[in-house]
Amino acid sequence: MTKPIEDGFHQVGLLEPRFAEVLHRHGEPPSRKRPGGFETVLKIIMQQQVSIASADAIWGRLRRGLGTVNPGAVLALDDDALRAFGLSRQKAAYAHSLAEAVASGSLNFRKLRGMADEAVIADLVQIKGIGRWTAEIYLLAVMQRPDIWPAADVALMEAARDLLGLADRPTVKQMAPLAEPWRPYRTYAARLLWLHYRHISRRETAG
Question: Do the Cβ atoms of 38 and 70 come closer than 8 Å?
Fold first, then answer.
């Protein structure tokens, strides 16, 4: 039996017909659901500003090196030990900052569940190494909030440029007003744009 498509995709397709075309052409995007907590946030930090392949390689070495990915395992290693797994000096510092916040209780993932989107972002970005993009990805993928728009995501920018027929890739500042008409379904818009980006990337590679 075919799984019914989430209503949010239909709704955002009504707001922007080109999203409906992506849905018709490629089907529902794969789930971006991730488990919550320390390990997921650490992995998102590892994915910042590097290619998917590089992030996966670094993450694989880090997981094998730590054994169990938890704050105690990270805090047991100094920056040089973390850098031996491929982390930059900056990301090693970010890993320690996150581990200290969780170990001390200043970051409580259970508490985040009952908070509004902007309050969650404000709580997370207080930690060194967590910017708005990381907090938004956590809200979108872990907390499954329906109206999250990671405006600084380069793949979203490029997908929006291509799908919407824009002359240039929109800037971060331009991305926010661009998505205003898609409230309160911007998460679904983002997921359809990521799906579109995957296909145009394959098209360009094949070409």
Answer: yes
For the record, the structure tokens of 178 come out as: 């661009």
CA angle 198, 140, 123 (to 5 degrees): 135
- Tell me, yes or no, if the pTM score tops 0.85: yes
Q: What is the pLDDT along the chain (207 residues), one digit of tens a residue?
A: 345 678 999 999 999 999 999 999 999 998 878 888 999 999 999 988 788 788 999 999 999 999 999 999 999 999 999 999 999 999 999 999 999 999 999 999 999 999 999 999 999 999 999 999 999 999 999 999 999 999 999 999 999 999 999 999 999 999 999 999 999 999 999 999 999 999 998 755 444
Q: Is the backbone of residue 190 left (phi > 0), alpha (psi -120 to 50) or beta?
A: alpha
Query: Could you give the domains of the chain?
Result: 7-30+149-206 (1.10.1670.40), 38-142 (1.10.340.30)
